[in-house]
Amino acid sequence: MRGESARMERRKQSMAELCCAFCHGTGKDPFDLLSSHASCEVCGGSGKVTVTEPAHSCAFCRGSGVFPGSRLTCTVCMGKGMVTVAQAAEPCRTCGGAGVRAGRFLPCSACGGKGLLAGVSAPATRLSGARILQKGNR
Fold it and tell me: How far is residue 90's CA from residue 84's CA, in Å, rounded to a whole number?
C-alpha cells in the first residue's frame, strides 16, 4: 500500500495543468462548428488540460492545438499544444525540429511531429511556450 501511494504521488508531481491551446481556455468550440454553445472537444469545456512533464510546445501545430490548414485538432498533441518528450532530447535531424518535412503536410515520421528525438543529451525546457494555471487562477 505504501509503495502504491508513493507511485501515485510521483505521478501527480509530474503532471501539469495548462490552459487549453485549442480553445484558448474558453472551454467553447473555437470554430463554432456545431453551435456557438458547443464545448471544446479537447478540454471538455473546462478550459484546462493536463500534460505530463517535461512538456514542450508541439512543433507540428506550433503550440496552437490545431492541425495546420484545418479546423481539426492536432494529431500530434491531441489539441493540447504540448507534447511530452524525455528529459534528454535534441531537435530531429530529419525535419530540423519543425515537426514536418518541407513540402509535406503530415507529421515527420522520424520524430512523430514533436520536433524532438528522445534519448540524446540536450537541455530540456519545462513547459516551454505554455501558460501554466496556478491553483488560484482557475
Answer: 13
Nearest to 55 by CA among 15, 25, 85, 20: 85
pTM: 0.73
Per-residue pLDDT of 111-124, as tens digits, reads 999 999 987 544 44
Alpha-carbon gap, residue 25 to 18, rounded angstroms: 9
Exposure string of 80-114, with b = 16+ CB inside 10 Å and e = fewer, is bbbbebeeebbbbeebebbbbbeeeeebbeebbbb
* Cβ 22 vs Cβ 75: under 8 Å: no
Label residue 68 exposed, middle or buried (CB < 10 Å: 0-12, 13-18, 19+): middle
With residue 95 as reference, give the H or E element that holds it.
Answer: none
| Listed residue (85, 95, 96) closest to 118, CA to CA | 85
Q: Which amino acid is at 25?
A: G
Q: How far apart are CA 20 and CA 44, in angstroms?
A: 10
